Amino acid sequence: MSPILGLQLLLVAGGAIAVAAVARRKGWPAPLLLVAAGLLVSPLVPAVPLDPELVLYVFLPPLLYSAALDSSYLRLRDVKRAVALLSIGLVLFTAVVVGFVVHLMLPALPMPLAFALGAIIAPPDAVAAVAVGRRLGLPRQALTILIGESLFNDATALTLYRVAIGALTGGTIDLMHSGWQFLTATAGGVAIGLALAVAFAWLFTLTRDSLVENTLMLLIPFAAYLAAETVHASGVIAVVIVGLYLGYRMHLRGFGTRLVSDAVWKVTDFFLETIVFALIGLQLVTVIRGISGYSAWQVAGYAAAVLGVTILTRFVWVFTATSVIKLLSRRGSRAPTRQQSVILGWAGMRGVVSLAAAFALPPGVPPRDRAMLLFLTFTTVIGTLLVQGTTFPALIRRLGVSSDQEQYEDRLAEAAAQQAALEAGLAELERLVAEQDNEPDEIQKQVIDQLREKSWRRSLSAWERLGGGTGQGGAETPSNLYRRLRREMLQAERQVFVRLRDERRLDDEVLREVMAQLDFEEAILER
Predict the structure, then answer these.
(1) Which residues form a coiled coil (predicted)?
(2) What local confidence, expressed as pLDDT, does residue 333 receive?
């Protein structure tokens, strides 16, 4: 990497983080603001290249792995029909429809290239939709479907893309061979993912070190992706399988591993996503510069047609798939409601994987055709992000879709579980006290009483959350009062430790240790 390119990427990362910070402070969807900022800045700065290998081999694996690690295997299993119909069926349907439409508009464009474009823009990126949906309280079923679709649809699209590019060099599209290639890539990804998941799970039983385990976790997505891609299997599926497996078994890891893992992947996601969405907008000048031989009206018409077909195709498929799920499911609750179907249909924002695939078109593609495919991909990505992304919150509010009932049920289930856990913990405490040979002295009794009080306080806090965190007449609940006062006490204690450090009566290493203890206690209070 040249120093100039390194400086460009550093400036992009710094600017993207600043824009994302503003978005978080204002409560705006950061991906949309980053794309808009990139579009505005693109004509004013030197072109920042979007390297396909950087996206597919550096950005994509950790983002997929983090999403899978944080997903619920059980919830995904509940909506497996919907996820399969969207991540496989919708991608195939979109690729075929878009391919035919593009071939009709541009008959000089080879048919395999038209279908390659369909495969390129077929998979949505649910990052923006999920971020907005979580903030506005989208029902869990709809969010799970969106997350599941985004986890697996890249595998389908990239496999179709390779098939189309292979047909371009071979001259024809062999459906039998293409189907077999898709099945082998999928099966190979699942097999490699399961094998690596079991291997890493066994390895974690030997480490028992939070720092080592989280360092290994940073390597896992790259190892899974490269292992699968080396044998022409689906690296996307391999990464997702490993993430789901290890995420489902995360309770077997130590508390230190879980605490560090949560922080590590939050930072990793934030860093990579900010750069990725900023890079999308920054490609404006690069994409437009390559267009030649067409009038502005022709180019705008082609872009609008592809964008419209892409959006309409998703709506048609989502409502068809919903009807199929209702017919196949014995329990209608497994199928999305009509309002949820509208939201799923409008949540088709495209992302950087589509752009990376377009930039990765082989050198044999004529420059004029390459420029057109890249432009149509770019306009579809930008169009879906800015048109659908900006209107997505208003649509959710307009339809009145809410997760309020689910949140209440969650709080009720948590309170009941806390009560059961409290009883189990207190029973274990009483058993340990009864096993002591001697009667506890006064200090030991105080410790035992503190343990009982702490358990009751945690259970009480869970029941209080059922009332929204307020007591009768809107008064502050005992748990909230305790947390507020304890936070103020912790802040006063920190000031004392820092003052003693500044007076050289306390070493910095000791200060870090006591600060960590206070920070953990405050983290528990915030939770």
Answers:
(1) 405-439
(2) 47
